[in-house]
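Support request, please re-run this one:
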Amino acid sequence: MSKIESTLDTLMCHVFPAQLPTWFRRIVARWSWWLLIPVIVVQPWVSWGYWDAGAAHGSVRNTAFALSLVITGIEVCMQLLAIPALKHFKRRGWELVYYSVFINLLYGVVHIFSSVKGGIGPLCGMVLLSTLFFYVLFQIRSSFKS
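Re-run finished. Output below.
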């Protein structure tokens, strides 16, 4: 386990006062691959919406726009690869989703530099959303075995 993973595990499962009930963790773990599908559908849609917003406002579609689309593509591919492993409670599926959350944070950083709807606001939203994802991921982590 990496130092970051160990630190997040300590924070999300031992320090944070609110823990999910065991029965709820099992339900989320069992259906995690289904819960991931709406995320996979929404991400490219939102990125493409930012791309179209740049064209509608007459701004130049800069490198940050293109890079954000590439990052979203990588993230979606990782999540698609995670689905079969999540179905069989394999640790590899959990790890792919875990890494995709970091890629989502990278998307937030790159998105700061886009000219439309960029800035620190969307990054704060990404950090908040990623924290929620990390919380749920670490709550169900014990269900996934190597």
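The first helix runs from residue 3 to 15. The chain has a mean pLDDT of 86.
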